[in-house]
């Protein structure tokens, strides 16, 4: 099959959010630390009414309904998540509830887990199925979502919550470019969840940032090689979208790609007598990839050097990430969708969008999508118009209430039997929610 890729997208996040400037005051940190320093405006979160199963049920059912799909036409569902409520039973099996009425139980695919990377692994699996001898002509769907909550402390403002559902098949307006994919994986403990009774990770913030940037360097090197190095540089990407733990890191990452280009140009044979970086500040002329992680001076110069490229290629992708926060596996796809929503259609057509996906632990890949203009692209973008409307119709909750709700979430996570007394007023219409957990920890869901 030709032009295999993403044919439709739906995206969900909670109706409640907390304002990051208010959170700065509540946490007693200096004004601007979360908003300027991390680049975050708001953070979406949910009460115990929503768990990972309900979040994925909402994203999946909305994709199906908005695009007029029928459950009997779907032959594969891959889920990416790191939010675990059951060590054995997958989210995918819960999604099978939606297939029960039509009687389609012939649906391949299960969950993939590694921090924020699982959604990309799920996408690669779905695309591979469509391109394989096992494909029977039916559609594949990828669902990636997470509830990202941190213990009180400096990581808490980098939480978030959301899920994406994507229809995958041939003839797509967003085509995965074949052969243009690079991966970097390694064994590190930068972020992990050893306490199986808690949703909170153990995180080494500075190490996780270094690992992220090192993974980015390695993926970009591999991607550029496959795309025809030494000629490949940032200018051959019309847009670059990144996994966004917080928006400032994304801006630093785009700057990091500029450093990669400089280092690559330095080692390439040049016809001119002057070195290619002679006009640059000294910090950049001497900078190496390995020696510059966490180097504030190099970071500052690179951000200034790449500011224009950032505005043109990446800034538009941060609409959801800045207002909902880190959604782990859904984060990079929130950036992809934001770029599609924020860029005029005529400009989108023909673009090459480079995607960088990172999951701590660690797993990372860089690949690219080629945008095919036309009616399919228009329909894809039109059917996501509700995402922006939902973003603007959310309800602000005070930091104190946010903190109380998170405490209640943590307490009730594995309670059995349990049924929340909270009102469903806090949910968007059409949202699936956790109705009850029985004494044997079996969960049932209802829809608002
Ligand atoms: N005004 C403006 N900027 C400020 C202010 C202020 N008043 N105060 C601090 N800042 C800046 C800092 O200078 C820093 O920016 P810089 O690094 O560009 O210099 C930024 O705000 C953050 O301040 P730090 O003191 O570095 O923040 P802290 O160490 O408290 O926590 C961290 C930040 C490490 C990101 C933490 O939130 C965390 O651990 N988050 C989870 C881990 C994470 O997201 N890792 C990323 C990759 S892995 C993943 O996706 C989970």
Automatic annotation (TrEMBL):
Keyword Lipid metabolism (UniProt): yes
EC code: 2.3.3.10
Catalytic activity, reaction form: acetoacetyl-CoA + acetyl-CoA + H2O = (3S)-3-hydroxy-3-methylglutaryl-CoA + CoA + H(+)
Binding site for CoA: 154, 208, 248, 252
Keywords, alphabetical: Lipid biosynthesis, Lipid metabolism, Steroid biosynthesis, Steroid metabolism, Sterol biosynthesis, Sterol metabolism, Transferase
EC top class named in words: transferase
Residues the record marks as active site: 82 (proton donor/acceptor), 116 (acyl-thioester intermediate), 243 (proton donor/acceptor)
Gene3D superfamilies xref list: 3.40.47.10
Residues in Hydroxymethylglutaryl-coenzyme A synthase C-terminal domain copies: 174-448
Pathway noted in the entry: Metabolic intermediate biosynthesis; (R)-mevalonate biosynthesis; (R)-mevalonate from acetyl-CoA: step 2/3
CDD domains: init_cond_enzymes
One Pfam family this sequence matches: HMG_CoA_synt_C
Similarity comment: family membership: Belongs to the thiolase-like superfamily. HMG-CoA synthase family.
Protein name, as recorded: Hydroxymethylglutaryl-CoA synthase
């Amino acid at each position: 099959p030709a032009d295999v890729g993403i044919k439709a997208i739906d995206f969900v996040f909670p109706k409640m959010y907390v304002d990051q400037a208010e959170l700065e005051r509540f946490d007693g940190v200096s004004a601007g630390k979360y908003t300027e320093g991390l680049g975050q405006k708001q953070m979406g979160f949910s009460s115990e009414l929503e768990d990972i199963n309900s979040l994925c049920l909402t994203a999946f059912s909305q994709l199906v309904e908005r695009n007029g799909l029928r459950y009997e036409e779907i032959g594969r569902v891959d889920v990416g998540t790191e939010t675990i409520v059951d060590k054995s039973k997958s989210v995918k099996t819960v999604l099978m509830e939606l297939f029960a009425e039509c009687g389609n139980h012939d649906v391949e695919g299960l969950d993939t887990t590694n921090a924020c990377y699982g959604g990309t692994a799920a996408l690669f699996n779905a695309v591979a199925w469509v391109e394989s001898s096992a494909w029977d002509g039916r559609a594949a769907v990828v669902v990636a979502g997470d509830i990202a909550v941190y213990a009180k402390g400096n990581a808490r403002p980098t939480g978030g919550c959301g899920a994406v559902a994507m229809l995958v098949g041939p003839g797509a307006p967003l085509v995965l470019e074949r052969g243009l994919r690079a991966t970097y994986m390694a064994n590190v403990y930068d972020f992990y969840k050893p306490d199986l009774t808690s949703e909170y990770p153990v995180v080494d913030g500075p190490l996780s940032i270094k690992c992220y940037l090192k993974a980015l360097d390695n993926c970009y090197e591999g991607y550029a090689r496959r795309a025809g190095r030494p000629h490949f540089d940032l200018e051959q990407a019309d847009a670059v979208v990144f996994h966004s733990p917080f928006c400032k890191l994304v801006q630093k990452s785009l700057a990091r790609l500029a450093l990669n280009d400089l280092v690559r140009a330095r080692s390439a044979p040049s016809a001119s007598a002057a070195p290619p970086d002679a006009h640059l500040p000294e910090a950049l002329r001497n900078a190496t990839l390995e020696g510059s992680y966490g180097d504030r001076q190099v970071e500052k110069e690179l951000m200034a050097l790449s500011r224009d490229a950032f505005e043109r290629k990446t800034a538009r992708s941060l609409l959801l990430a800045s207002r909902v926060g880190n959604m782990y596996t859904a984060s990079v796809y929130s950036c992809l969708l934001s770029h599609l929503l924020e860029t005029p259609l005529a400009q989108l057509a023909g673009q090459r969008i480079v995607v960088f996906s990172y999951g701590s632990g660690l797993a990372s890949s860089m690949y690219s999508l080629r945008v095919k203009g036309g009616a399919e692209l228009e329909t894809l973008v039109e059917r996501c118009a509700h995402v922006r409307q939902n973003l603007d119709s959310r309800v602000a909750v005070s930091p104190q209430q946010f903190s109380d709700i998170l405490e209640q979430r943590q307490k009730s996570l594995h309670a059995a039997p349990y049924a929340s007394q909270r009102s469903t007023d806090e949910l968007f219409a059409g949202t699936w929610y956790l109705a009850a957990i029985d004494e044997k920890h079996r969960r049932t869901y209802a829809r608002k």
